[in-house]
Amino acid sequence: MKKFYKMKVLLTGGRAPFTLELLRTFGKEGHEVHILEFISGSLCSYSKYCIKTHIINSPNSNYSHFKSDLINLLKCEQFDIVIPTCEEAIYLSELKTEIDNYTNLFAPNFDLIYKLHNKDLFIKYLQSKGLNTPAIYDHDSVIDKSKTYIVKKKLSRFGGHVQKLKGLQIPATFDFETSIVQEYIKGQEYCLYVILCDGVVTAKSVYFKQLTIGGGATNLFESVNIEIINNWIDDFFKDICLSGQFSFDLFISNDKVYPIECNPRTTSGVHLLRGSLSLNHFTSNKTNQALPNHEKMYMLSIPLLLFSLNPKIFFSAMTKFIKAKDVILSLSDPYPTLGQVFSLFKFSIIAFKKKVDLVEATTLDIAYDKLK
């Protein structure tokens, strides 16, 4: 019988439902799981599987204090592994050399993670690997005034600061330093989540992008198995011999895969791996690959219910709502269901004070917006 090794795990980003998914998964396996956060009352702090929540200065409030707080915590607690889940992953990767003196940071080096996070550099990176991409345009390019383009910030998240514009609407003074003009690709959009451990894909899920918040985050997670996406995964990761989590938004058009952006962190695709994912997929590349159960569908019920108020999609949304399982609700771990209400209230206050929308309020303290 294979011996079980209990590990001491630190998950960052305790505000996110996908972090709760990992917390419950590792906790049920018998591991000691801690949460790192920059705000009190995070979603994961309500879970019975959370041994302790460590609250430190955020990288965007005081970077030097964030760094010293983090290193002191790692020295004191001696975690076996640190798994970043939200955009603080980029800040942690900047400190990877120092962090790896005390524990194992499950994230790639900063050069790669920044290249993937930056939407301009990501497309250029794909092109260097000989993969299909939408065209991108700079200040020397000719913009066809009759064509449709996608305009977005080089550093953004959740579909924020994304516009679909005619060339005629793009001003001559457009800021190509901070934003990009990208070819508009027509086709079905998908989301992809991959765990890579020492160069081996140990887990993956692909799901439709549907019922989104402003074209950004998806509320319903319905897995699909598409051969050309599986082949694209092999092509993209064939020469990347490291560990980390990678999430992609991509289109299929004319039987070709066109990735449009990458989030080098956890995303909601992890919910689809429920029942097949374990901590082993983050610690060993000898583990059988975790894959979704295509018969199961998951959702964020509160956003989906709010979304279904739109009369145009009410019946389709409610049909999905009846079939899907809420990712937060759990009879064996009930308190996060109530905790999400308090968490949403806290972020609503932040949104009001900072005069931003609710989605942006959830990342103000961790958003990586430093152009390099």
Describe this structure in words.
With 372 residues, the protein is α/β, with parallel strands linked by helices. The chain has 3 domains: 140 residues, 3-Layer(aba) Sandwich (Rossmann fold); 154 residues, ATP-grasp fold, B domain (D-amino Acid Aminotransferase, Chain A, domain 1, 2-Layer Sandwich), CATH 3.30.470.20; 49 residues, no CATH class. Helix content is 30%, strand content 23%. It has a 5-stranded parallel sheet. The protein is globular, with a radius of gyration of 20 Å.
Q: What are the SSEs and their pairings?
A:
Blueprint: E1 8-12, H1 17-28, E2 32-37, E3 50-55, H2 63-77, E4 81-83, H3 88-94, H4 96-99, E5 104-105, H5 110-117, H6 119-128, E6 136-137, E7 148-153, E8 162-166, E9 179-183, E10 188-197, E11 200-208, E12 220-222, H7 227-237, E13 244-253, E14 256-263, H8 280-283, E15 297-299, H9 301-307, H10 314-323, E16 325-326, H11 335-354, H12 358-361
Parallel strand pairs: 1-2, 1-4, 2-3, 4-5, 15-16
Antiparallel strand pairs: 6-9, 7-8, 7-9, 10-11, 10-13, 12-15, 13-14
Helix pairs in contact: 3-5, 5-6, 9-10
Feature tags:
single chain, 372 residues, alpha/beta, Rossmann fold, D-amino Acid Aminotransferase, Chain A, domain 1, 3 domains, 5-stranded parallel sheet
